[in-house]
Amino acid sequence: MLISGLFRRKPEPLIINDPLGKFTLQNPKKDNSYEGEIDWLGTEVFVDLETDGPDSHTADAALKILRKIAEETAQWDRRLRQYAAEEMSDGDGKVEIWEGDEDSDDGYSYLTKEEFISRISMGFIHINKDGTIAFYYDTDGMFTDHNLEIQADISGEILRADLCG
Predict the structure, then answer these.
(1) Which of 52, 60, 73, 120 registers the highest number of CB atoms within 10 A of its CB?
(2) In the chain, what's the furthest Cα-to-Cα distance?
(3) How many CA atoms lie within 13 A of 162 on its CB side?
(4) What value does the mean pLDDT of the chain take?
(5) CA dihedral defined by 58, 60, 64, 70, rounded to 10 degrees?
(6) How far is CA 54 from the centre of its chain?
(7) CA distance linking residue 84 with residue 147, whole number of Å
(8) Rounded Cα gap, residues 66 and 46, in angstroms
(9) Which residues pair with 164 in a beta bridge?
(10) What pLDDT is recorded for position 72?
(11) Which value, in Å, is the radius of gyration of the alpha carbons in the chain?
């Protein structure tokens, strides 16, 4: 190791201060996203704004997308939850969950769409540098340790919903 390596300073974090919150790129030489939190219907939610680099316009574009979503948080949340309930339900309108009822015939429990919607909660938002958005909902243990990922674009089109984790 060269002695000069001992005196290299860690790069200073870059910070975006916005009315929605403070977003930080911790290590501009290594990291590829600004991280922060916003209020989502009364709950603090982690947000990740993907960027190409510290001087990239992609962080500004991601922040612009986040601002647009924040203007219509209640509408986004309602549509995302409804879409997830539709995608997760069977032909009878029931959502099969994995927490399981040991007394049931097949080892699974079922919820109505409304029960399912009431149990999921927003946990994390990732805005990709290509402009797509990933919303991650906590599933309250309904699917063991899996979360629900819902992909959308800024036009409001919901692209898909899947369990992840």
Answers:
(1) 120
(2) 69
(3) 7
(4) 90
(5) 100
(6) 22
(7) 12
(8) 12
(9) 147
(10) 96
(11) 20
pLDDT tens-digit series, residues 80-99: 999 999 999 998 889 999 86
According to the 3-state scheme, what is the secondary structure of the chain? CCHHHHCCCCCCCEEEEECCEEEEECCCCCCCEEEEEEEECCEEEEEEEECCCCCCCHHHHHHHHHHHHHHCHHHHHHHHHHHHHHHHECCCCEEEECCCCCCCCCCCEEEEHHHHHHHCEEEEEEECCCCCEEEEEECCCCCCCCEEEEEECCCCCEEEEEEEC
* pTM exceeding 0.85: yes
Residue 104 has pLDDT above 80, yes or no: no
Q: Distance (Å, rounded) from C-alpha 140 to C-alpha 143?
A: 8
**Angle, CA 14 vertex, CA 6 and CA 68 arms, to 5°:** 155
Residue 68 pLDDT grade (very low, low, confident, very high; cuts 50, 70, 90): very high
